[in-house]
Every structure is written in structure tokens, then in C-alpha cells.
Design goal:
The protein is α+β, with helices and mostly antiparallel strands and about 375 residues long. The protein has one domain: DD-peptidase/beta-lactamase superfamily (Beta-lactamase), CATH 3.40.710. Helices cover about 30% and strands about 15% of the residues. It contains twelve helices and 14 strands. The strands form four sheets. The chain has a seven-stranded antiparallel beta sheet with strand order 1-3-2-13-12-11-10, sandwiched between helices. Helix 1 runs antiparallel to helix 12 (about 370-380). The chain is globular, with a radius of gyration of 19 Å. It holds the Pfam family Beta-lactamase. InterPro entries: Beta-lactam-related (IPR001466), Beta-lactam/transpept-like (IPR012338), Beta-lactamase/esterase (IPR052907). This is Beta-lactamase family protein.
């Protein structure tokens, strides 16, 4: 497989490791970008972007980044904090009055961002098309009762995070959450990143498909067992209500919507550029970045059924947990996306890392492909 792009010669073994991914016949397309101290040292891509394996992955190919989107939403919210428009510890209901229903009057924006609010799923099954109806989803969440006492534990809000945080953005910033994120983050940094994709961009979006036969690790198997055998479990509802969540990735209406938990579109360059912008202070004041990257929740995740550790809208490194380490410094923070894409920063060495793939693996947190590349990067330094 021919690897395209640029690499500083110090990182030749990283380029080789990236190329080796394609010795797996199921690997379709991928890209890798690394910035150190704001300088791009690696910007590579290879493979195919389309469904039939005929269209090469290009320099400007973009794809659905799934949960890699969440930190972008969190940064937009933290910018509002810096502007004095949002108080992390005020009731959400101060900005969104209907949200106070069903015992949620004291839930705070901080709890939404840290996955401690008790709202990772909706109990009552919704029709598939509800996924694309912002009003229906936010109304359902506003009347939902928390699954546990807010603040007493944490459970990953895989998709509900987008409506919860997105509705706060919409009400305070007065525009769609995707528009807010793009105006505040992508445009100023010149990132090819979109939450709510224009139809004119569709032709450069990579088609995403699952790898077959890989059962993943114990955590992935545990979650899958739950979803197969317990349809009403919170973990199942988190990923399958509305039932269209897991099957919509390649659909036009999914690309068009502004769902800042899961449907950002961009590439490895956009992810690395975002984390570089966090490290050099262009996106957040130090005070807000410290809040974002400070531990807010750690331990057994009620949704993912594995250990997670969260700041505000970002996942913090767990060096001793095999499926939850980024593979670089202990202070690393960022976010994996379903199936393998990841963006993160290692602040100790000013590394900003983006890896994207359209061959979905089954892992719940970190994908071994990205972890391996991060370890090789470490050896190059």
C-alpha cells in the first residue's frame, strides 16, 4: 500500500508502522497527523475512501469522527464560560427551564460535560427518525428522569451528550451547535472540520464499514453481550435508542445534522490542529483548559462497563488500563471515536495527535492501531 503525504525523517519508523496497518486486508483507508510544538512532523494518508475500494484516499478526504467530536463541543461551552455567559455550577435549568423536570433541577453543565448527570440514555423507545429531530430529542431528554442520583457516579453519554451540551450551546450562543463550534474553533484555526456537513462536501467523505471477525477485547465483548441480551438495559438504550444511532453513519441526513457528540466530520489534520490549538492557548484560557483536563470522574463506567476517566468533555489517560491509555504521557487527554479514530494531546511534550480510519474496529475505548502508532511515535522522540 502506497503511503502518501509528508514526514520528517526522524519519524520514518512511524511512517512504516502506519504503512504496516495495511497488511491487514480489511484495512480500507486511514490518515495520521502529528504536530509537535505546533509544527507538523507527520501528515500521512493511504488506502481507499469509497464503498467499493476504487477511489483513493486523498489529502482532503474527510470522514465521520464519531466521539472525537465531543471535545470540540466542550471547548465551545468552555469558551462561553470564559465569556461569562455560562456558569459550570449553575443549574442547567437556568438556561433551559424545561430541563428542571423529573428531578433534574440541580443538574449542572459541569455534570453534563463530565458524564455524571445520569442521562446517558432514554428509557422510552423512540422511532428511528427521531434521531434527526432536534426538538424531539431535546424534549425527550428534558423530561427524562436520571438513571442514578446526579453526581454520585458516571456513565458515558455516548450520543445524548450531543443534545444536552448542544442545546446549552444553542440557547446561550443563539445558533446551531455545529455552527457555534465551526465559528469558534474550526474557522479561527483553519481546520477542515464540520458539525453539520454541506451537501457540496459529500463527495469527499469516506465511506465507513465495520471490520469482520475481530471480536475486540473483554470490554468490547462485555458491552456486546449486554446489548444482545438486555434490550432495556441502560447501556443498550444508550447506543440503540433511537434504533438508528448505530446504522446511520453513511446517510446524508446524518451528515447534515448538527449532533456534537458524534457526527463531526474532518480528518487527522483537523484533530491534530485542534489539540495544537488547545496546547498553545488559541482556543481556551489556561483556567478553562485546566478545568477541562482536570479529573472529574474516574472508575467503573455505568454505560461502557469498563473503567473510564473524564475531564470535561474529554477522556483522560489511564496509563495502567490497557484499553484506556493513549500510549504517550500520563497527562494525555483527548477522545477516541467509535471504531478507531482518535485525537489527543500530550501536554508534557506538546504533542497533538490525530488518527482516523474508515475500517471500524470493535473496541470500546482506545483502538490498538492508534495505540501502536503512539508508541512508535514515542520511540522516535
Amino acid at each position: 500500500m502506497q503511503v502518501q503525504g509528508y514526514f520528517d525523517l526522524r519519524f520514518e519508523t512511524l511512517k512504516e508502522a502506519f504503512g504496516e496497518l495495511f497488511s491487514d486486508a480489511q484495512e480500507r483507508g486511514a490518515a495520521l497527523c502529528v504536530q509537535i510544538g505546533g509544527e507538523t512532523v507527520v501528515d500521512l494518508w493511504a488506502g481507499v475512501a469509497d464503498k467499493d475500494g476504487e477511489q483513493a484516499w486523498h489529502s482532503d478526504t474527510i470522514l465521520n469522527l464519531f466521539s472525537c467530536t465531543k471535545p470540540f463541543a466542550a471547548v465551545a461551552a468552555l469558551q462561553l464560560v470564559g465569556e461569562g455567559k455560562l456558569d459550570l455550577d449553575a443549574p442547567v435549568a437556568q438556561y433551559w427551564p424545561e430541563f428542571a423536570a423529573a428531578g433534574k433541577e440541580r443538574i449542572t453543565p459541569r455534570q453534563l460535560l463530565a458524564h455524571t448527570a445520569g442521562l446517558p440514555a432514554l428509557r422510552e423507545m423512540l422511532p428511528a427518525e427521531a434521531l434527526y429531530d432536534w426538538q424531539q430529542m431535546t424534549t425527550a431528554l428534558a423530561s427524562e428522569q436520571p438513571w442514578w442520583t446526579p453526581g454520585t457516579g458516571h456513565g458515558y453519554a455516548a450520543i445524548t451528550f450531543g443534545w444536552l451540551v448542544g442545546e446549552l450551546l444553542r440557547r446561550i450562543d443563539g445558533r446551531g451547535p455545529g455552527e457555534s463550534i465551526v465559528a469558534r474553533i474550526a474557522k479561527p484555526l483553519g481546520l477542515d472540520f464540520h458539525v453539520g456537513l454541506a451537501d457540496s462536501e459529500f463527495e469527499r467523505v469516506a465511506h465507513i464499514a465495520r471490520k469482520k471477525g475481530d471480536m475486540g477485547d473483554a470490554a468490547a465483548q462485555r458491552l456486546l453481550r449486554c446489548m444482545m441480551s438486555e434490550p432495556a438495559a441502560m447501556s443498550t438504550r444508550a447506543f440503540a435508542n433511537p434504533p438508528s444511532i448505530l446504522t446511520s453513519t453513511n446517510k446524508p441526513e446524518w451528515r447534515r445534522m448538527q449532533q456534537p457528540a458524534a457526527n463531526g466530520h474532518g480528518n487527522a489534520r483537523a484533530l491534530a490542529g485542534f489539540y495544537a490549538g488547545l496546547l498553545d492557548g488559541r482556543l481556551l484560557e489556561a483556567e478553562q483548559l485546566n478545568e477541562m483536563t482536570r479529573e472529574h470522574a474516574c472508575g467503573e463506567d455505568k454505560t461502557l462497563l469498563t473503567r473510564t476517566r473524564f475531564g470535561l468533555g474529554c477522556m483522560l489517560d489511564q496509563p495502567d488500563v490497557a484499553n484506556a491509555t493513549y500510549g504517550l504521557g500520563r497527562k494525555a487527554f483527548g477522545h477516541p471515536g467509535a471504531g478507531g479514530s482518535v485525537g489527543f494531546a500530550d501536554p508534557q511534550r506538546e504533542i497533538a495527535f490525530g488518527f482516523v480510519t474508515n475500517s471500524l474496529g470493535p473496541y470500546v475505548l482506545m483502538d490498538p492501531r492508534a495505540q501502536k502508532l503512539a508508541r512508535v511515535l514515542d520511540q522516535c522522540l
